[in-house]
């Protein structure tokens, strides 16, 4: 028979229970025992959702309190010494790696986004936990090659992480043996980096590594080698063949099916990822069944598993919570709890025939057709306006050299100008008033007055801090994406469709259901008010490039970059030369698409580079990048406050690669999630550091 499987399940809970418990623990409102008990309850609930849906192969060890790679680091005894030397227990060491720790005399920064296996590893504990509940699971591990390839050497070290593979493999073997002893028959080992363009040394590491595992035979569980988010055709010669199963993403790249089947070992099973783990649309069951059946024709039913394309971590928990969603649109969606049902339905259809799931297939076909033919998906006015775009619409009036001269005259900024990325702390009171307004408990006028008072407070704080370029703080924005989506036609909005962003942070993205248009201004009112009460230049931050970037270089990536760059330039080309355009990137890995960054033609680029090696900025030197840059001088994702000296050291490092007149001094991201006390303290140190360098370079300018 064709079995069904899920590569991973969302961990936050239908009502974000894990987020609430984790943040309560950080705030010392609940005990560690309470946190771990809630985590255990959620794991059991999630296993039962999959079991009750009829899924044959259910994952374990896909759950994490903060991040699965941090869990993996800790399980493998690879926690850096700076986190283990302060007497913190394992849970607090774990959180310190993710978010830093600054309490009770301990001050360590978080890790940037192997020695020996620790006793009682989490993968074994959770397998046993599920087993005690009557559920046999397939543990999920981060693969050794991907783990090392995605790692970075500590600052000042030149070791290539992949060179540590020989030391790491024995630790994996020990863990696999422990899982076998606990009763695990199969283990899913995630090696998503096989979809990348890899260095030859990394590419050559896959086969010998998995041959070592295969040589152990029944001493370890059978291995499912899992890839996703791309195709592996370009690396097909690196695919291990002497293993139990290979998983591929047939949603993102269905064209790889034939090539992969041809490369499988004579007994290797194919795990066919035909249910999208990255999106919220219903699966076209007819098409998915046809894909699986084509694999079955070549391999037989016993050598094919129906699966999600990736972990469902990237999808909301359940559609059942969406009571206010338009029924027509809701019929197009499938969240994690619904997708596990789709997996089971596809497997049953292939095993027992379509007649065994006739009702499900008919309902699904009706939904797919309804979406395809809906008038909501097409707006003739958008198409008409698009058709009138001409080449000059993508360009600013003048080149940067002309613009910057006018901007300096208009803005009068000093050397090393200070600013923030856009948002300031969103307090409990802001959330209360927003909720009251949403429920109709206060009028629009009352809410507007409240927002104006919040903007006044933020402007006053910036005056007291002596920042150079202000922001209005974004108190009116519930989310940096959703806020804009709610002011555009073509989006649908949910009430509970939260997805983990990082750690305990969740987002509830608006969903594009049709052509997008802007019926009215989105930021003008608040920005005009902020300008009217401030003495300094005021910046408006709006979301900016990389989130949809294809993983591999090539035509697909170039097409995406061309589209993204044109979209950005089209949106800002209408401003005057004296208007300074800032763009922020929430990551620092920009070397492989630097040409796209340059093509944006933004006057000031801010990047999230505070925890990365300043040497990454060398690309701006190599490419003779002429515009201004704010690399981020401290990490806002952690509650710890950087010292003034720490920021000075960071700026000094940046000045090895950037000219003083290019460098802006700012945090590495928005301050929405931080508390006011830590925000003021960190910005005070930042401004003081900027003034130090301003004085130092005053005679050199």
UniProtKB/TrEMBL annotation:
<dbReference type="GO" id="GO:0008270">
    <property type="term" value="F:zinc ion binding"/>
</dbReference>
<dbReference type="Pfam" id="PF01717">
    <property type="entry name" value="Meth_synt_2"/>
</dbReference>
<keyword id="KW-0808">Transferase</keyword>
<comment type="similarity">
    <text>Belongs to the vitamin-B12 independent methionine synthase family.</text>
</comment>
<dbReference type="InterPro" id="IPR038071">
    <property type="entry name" value="UROD/MetE-like_sf"/>
</dbReference>
<dbReference type="GO" id="GO:0009086">
    <property type="term" value="P:methionine biosynthetic process"/>
</dbReference>
<comment type="pathway">
    <text>Amino-acid biosynthesis; L-methionine biosynthesis via de novo pathway; L-methionine from L-homocysteine (MetE route): step 1/1.</text>
</comment>
<feature type="domain" description="Cobalamin-independent methionine synthase MetE N-terminal">
    <location>
        <begin position="4"/>
        <end position="115"/>
    </location>
</feature>
<feature type="domain" description="Cobalamin-independent methionine synthase MetE N-terminal">
    <location>
        <begin position="120"/>
        <end position="298"/>
    </location>
</feature>
<keyword id="KW-0479">Metal-binding</keyword>
<dbReference type="GO" id="GO:0032259">
    <property type="term" value="P:methylation"/>
</dbReference>
<comment type="function">
    <text>Catalyzes the transfer of a methyl group from 5-methyltetrahydrofolate to homocysteine resulting in methionine formation.</text>
</comment>
<dbReference type="InterPro" id="IPR013215">
    <property type="entry name" value="Cbl-indep_Met_Synth_N"/>
</dbReference>
<dbReference type="InterPro" id="IPR002629">
    <property type="entry name" value="Met_Synth_C/arc"/>
</dbReference>
<keyword id="KW-0028">Amino-acid biosynthesis</keyword>
<feature type="domain" description="Cobalamin-independent methionine synthase MetE C-terminal/archaeal">
    <location>
        <begin position="539"/>
        <end position="691"/>
    </location>
</feature>
<keyword id="KW-0862">Zinc</keyword>
<protein>
    <recommendedName>
        <fullName>5-methyltetrahydropteroyltriglutamate--homocysteine S-methyltransferase</fullName>
        <ecNumber>2.1.1.14</ecNumber>
    </recommendedName>
</protein>
<keyword id="KW-0486">Methionine biosynthesis</keyword>
<keyword id="KW-0489">Methyltransferase</keyword>
<dbReference type="GO" id="GO:0003871">
    <property type="term" value="F:5-methyltetrahydropteroyltriglutamate-homocysteine S-methyltransferase activity"/>
</dbReference>
<dbReference type="Pfam" id="PF08267">
    <property type="entry name" value="Meth_synt_1"/>
</dbReference>
């Amino acid at each position: 028979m064709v079995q069904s499987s899920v590569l991973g399940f969302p961990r936050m809970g239908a009502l974000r229970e894990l987020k609430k418990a984790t943040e309560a623990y950080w705030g010392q409102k609940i005990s560690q025992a309470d946190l771990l008990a809630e985590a255990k309850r959620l794991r059991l609930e999630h296993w039962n959702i999959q079991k009750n849906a009829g899924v044959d192969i259910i994952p374990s060890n896909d759950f994490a309190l903060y991040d699965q790679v941090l869990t993996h680091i800790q399980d493998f005894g690879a926690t850096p010494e700076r986190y283990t030397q302060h007497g913190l227990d394992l849970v607090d060491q774990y959180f310190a790696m993710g978010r830093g720790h600054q309490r009770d005399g301990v001050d360590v920064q978080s890790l940037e986004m192997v020695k020996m296996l620790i006793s009682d590893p989490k993968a074994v504990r959770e397998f046993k936990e599920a087993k005690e509940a009557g559920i046999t699971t397939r543990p999920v591990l981060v693969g050794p090659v991907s783990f090392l390839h995605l790692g970075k050497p500590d600052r000042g070290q030149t070791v290539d992480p992949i060179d540590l593979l020989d030391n790491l493999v024995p630790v994996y073997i020990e863990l696999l043996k422990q899982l076998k002893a606990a009763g695990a028959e199969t283990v899913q080992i995630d090696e998503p980096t096989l979809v990348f363009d890899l260095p030859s040394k990394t590419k050559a590491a896959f086969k010998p590594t998995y041959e070592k595992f295969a040589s152990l035979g029944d001493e370890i569980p059978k291995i499912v080698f899992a890839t996703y988010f791309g195709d592996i055709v370009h690396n097909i010669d690196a695919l291990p063949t002497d293993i139990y199963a290979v998983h591929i993403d047939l949603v993102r790249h269905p064209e790889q099916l034939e090539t992969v089947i041809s490369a499988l070992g004579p007994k290797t099973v194919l795990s066919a990822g035909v249910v999208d783990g990255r999106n919220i649309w219903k699966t076209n069951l007819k098409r998915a069944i046809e894909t699986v059946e084509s694999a079955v024709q070549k391999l037989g039913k016993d050598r094919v598993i129906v699966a999600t394309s990736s972990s469902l971590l990237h999808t909301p928990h359940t559609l059942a919570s969406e009571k206010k969603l338009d029924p027509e649109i809701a019929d197009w969606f499938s969240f994690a709890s619904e997708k596990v049902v789709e997996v089971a339905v596809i497997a049953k259809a292939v095993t027992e025939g379509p007649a065994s799931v006739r009702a499900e297939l008919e309902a699904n076909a009706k939904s797919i057709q309804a979406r395809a033919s809906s008038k909501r998906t097409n707006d003739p006015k958008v198409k008409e306006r698009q058709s009138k775009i001409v080449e000059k619409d993508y360009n600013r009036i003048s080149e940067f050299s002309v613009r910057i001269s006018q901007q300096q005259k208009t803005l009068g900024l000093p050397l090393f100008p200070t600013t923030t990325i856009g948002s300031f702390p969103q307090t409990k009171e802001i959330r209360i008033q927003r909720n009251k307004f949403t429920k109709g408990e206060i009028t629009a006028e009352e809410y507007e007055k409240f927002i104006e008072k919040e903007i006044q407070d933020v402007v006053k704080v910036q005056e007291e801090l002596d920042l150079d370029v202000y922001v209005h703080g974004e108190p009116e924005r519930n989310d940096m994406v959703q806020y804009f989506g709610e002011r555009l036609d073509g989006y649908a909005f949910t009430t509970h469709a939260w997805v983990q962003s990082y750690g305990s942070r969740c987002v509830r993205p608006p969903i594009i259901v049709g052509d997008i248009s802007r019926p009215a201004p989105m930021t003008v009112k608040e920005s005009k008010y902020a300008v009217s009460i401030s003495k300094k230049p005021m910046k408006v931050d709006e979301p900016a490039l990389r989130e949809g970037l294809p993983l591999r270089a090539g035509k697909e990536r170039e097409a995406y970059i061309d589209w993204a760059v044109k979209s950005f330039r089209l949106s800002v080309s209408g401003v005057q030369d004296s208007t300074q355009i800032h763009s922020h990137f929430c990551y620092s890995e920009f070397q492989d698409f630097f040409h796209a960054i340059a093509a944006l033609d933004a006057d000031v680029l801010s990047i999230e580079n505070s925890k990365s090696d300043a040497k990454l900025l060398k690309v701006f030197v190599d490419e003779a990048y002429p515009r201004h840059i704010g690399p981020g001088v401290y990490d806002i994702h952690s509650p710890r406050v950087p010292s003034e000296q720490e920021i000075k050291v960071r700026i000094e490092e940046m000045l090895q690669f950037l000219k003083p007149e290019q460098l802006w001094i700012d945090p590495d991201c928005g301050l929405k999630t931080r508390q006011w006390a830590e925000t003021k303290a960190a910005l005070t140190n930042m401004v003081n550091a900027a003034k130090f360098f301003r004085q130092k370079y005053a005679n050199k300018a």
